[in-house]
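[Automated response] Your request has been received and processed.

Submitted sequence:
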Amino acid sequence: MFDIGKTGDIIGDGCQSLLQQIKTRVEYKNRNNTLARRRRERRASSGAGTMTRGPVDQYGCVRWAPTDLPSGETETTLDEMKMRLHRMFSEDGFDGAERAEPLMEKTYILQRRYLNQVPAPTIDRVIEEWPFLSSRRCLYSHFKLLTDVSIISKLREAIHSKGSTIVKFCQGLSRYPGIAEVLANYDVEVSDKAMCVLQLLRTYFKEPQDAIVLEPEVSFVLQTLIQLLVKSFLLMYIQ
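Generated structure:
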């Protein structure tokens, strides 16, 4: 079952249809636990030490609750990596996300254990326990390991294949509040199509601007900068 446009192009996989929504709802209500309705686990085709795909659950996760530690690592070494990540974040903040990414991938099994707790931890607790998960780079990396899907690649593909359709649809809604203003600022040759599409969707569904765009708080940024400068000064003084 597919959602097909007037020109015959497939604009969706059918998950927006009423039938699929009802089916998904029934499956969700009938499942016994978060690990239910798993497909048979695939045999690993690669050698030891490679993080392989696990069973695929109903919602596309392939490494929901991994049980095997990374090759050459123990619970102790992973805990040490976690402590190192905390030190890196306290010293460098989000600027250390690139260096932290390999360690975050190594400690993925610890992150899943923490996130899968019942009851689930709050967002504040998650950020406190795994601060780099609130960085875009490490969050995307975690999602890639969890689902075997790259968010960035999927978003780019969607914008490339469906973006023009969304813009064309909205051009017929010129009287819709805010739509005309967004389209007036869009130039096909120089404007960012992705940003235009996001603004059109936000306007169409009447979402507030801060739902997808975050504006930094100047006082918070200044306070963080002062803290980093003080820490740097103390480190230089100690050395």
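Summary generated for your ticket: Confidence is low (pLDDT under 50) at residues 36-48. The first strand starts at residue 3 and ends at 4.
If you did not submit this request, please reply to this message.
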